[in-house]
Amino acid sequence: MRMMETIASSKVRDNWATTFDEAFYNGPKLIEKNDRINLLFSSPMIKELLRSNYKLIIYMEEEEGMYAVHLSGIKGTYGHGESVEEAIDNLVHHLTFLVEEMYSEFNRYVKERHNDIFYLLQISLMDKKELFELPVYKYLESEYLPHGVEENEVEAWIKNGGLIEAPTYRTVKDAMAALDRISDQNEIRR
Asked: How would residue 83 be classed by pLDDT, with cut points 50, 70 and 90?
């Protein structure tokens, strides 16, 4: 006996609109076909679950007029550029490639990149505008880390509340605006 009632796939086909509405407004539905169970879940519910459990944060580093951005949760996701916006665009391009690859090879991702899946699923439900609303933290050099936190522990420290309270910039848009103001002030001084 299952903890939740299953719906036969033939019944779902006959009443697709009703099943879809119930899953969207009332909660997930288990659909059974040939002893296989599929879960029908609404996008807003999945988004909220992922957002609350798998924080997406953008880290930013500036060096010699170049910007590098990195997304939390997925190792090796970087974007570089002469502006924050260009770096984010490059990051979006990289993430788009990863999301497409994940959906085309989902079984492989479940086995080999299971830590990345929850972040990539969340990203796949976002549009570029939402990505620009993520909090931004400046990359922490090891001398700026709190006592006892090693560089390789920064993400775990953040997930446990280390930086979540006070991002360097509330959103990517705020970071771009602040950096534009700093750039404008430097131009005026020259």
From this structure: confident
Cα dihedral value 25, 27, 33, 38, nearest 10: 110
- What are the start-end ranges of the H helices in 34-150? 43-53, 84-104, 106-112, 114-124, 128-131
Q: Where are the beta strands (DSSP E) in the chain?
A: 6-8, 29-33, 36-40, 58-63, 66-71, 78-81, 136-138
Give CATH for domain 7-44: 3.40.1620
- The rounded Cα 147 to chain-centroid distance in angstroms is 28
* pTM over the 0.70 mark: no
CB proximity list for 75: less than 8 A, separation 6 or greater: none
CA gyration radius for the chain?
21
Amino acid of residue 141: E
Cα(115)–Cα(110) distance, integer angstroms: 9
Domain chopping of the chain, boundaries: 7-44, 56-141+151-185
> Locate tokens 């990863």: which residue?
98
- For residue 21 the two structure tokens come to 């509405």
pLDDT of residue 183: 57
CATH number of 56-141+151-185: 3.30.160.620
